[in-house]
Amino acid sequence: MKPAKVLIIEDNFQNRYLFKLLLAKGGMEVIEAEDGRSGIAMAAEMDPDLILLDIQLPDIDGYQVARELRGRRRFDGLPIIAVTSYAMAGDREKSLAAGCTGYIEKPINPTAFMEQIRGFLNGDAAGS
Ligand code: MN
User: Could you read off the pLDDT of 76-87 as tens digits, one per residue?
Assistant: First the structure.
């Protein structure tokens, strides 16, 4: 089976590094974008199996990215997982309202992280 391709849209280098490390260790192919616009372009170009989406990005925010992707038919079934801050409770609801499939909270729990990603790839519901 082909490895799952995950697009990370995240401007923070350390977070991107950690996600990449965990995903690669879990056998997944990783592609990266550092802002919302290039993330949308990369999604169109690379056709990922899942998107890990930071909310605070330097250009448009993650909600806008999710809304724009959800406006395109070809991304209908694509899991878009928001990376929200545990401290920002409102982000969770807002990300789901923007069209995200679910969310993972920062700080990341490395052991739970891959299980969550695999769950979302298998079609699990939001907020698990
Ligand atoms: Mn950020």
Answer: 999 999 998 877
Report the separation in Å between the CA atom of 35 and the middle of ligand 1, taken as the mean of its atom positions: 9
For the beta carbon of residue 109, count every other beta carbon within 10 angstroms.
11
**What residue type is assigned to position 29 of the chain?**
E
Closest by Cα among 32, 36, 46, 29 to 117:
29
pTM over 0.90: yes
- The residue to which tokens 């997944």 are assigned: 28
Distance separating alpha carbons of residues 5 and 85, to the nearest angstrom: 24
| H/E run at residue 81 | strand 80-85
How many angstroms is it from 48 CA to the middle of ligand 1?
Answer: 20
Longest Cα separation, the chain: 38
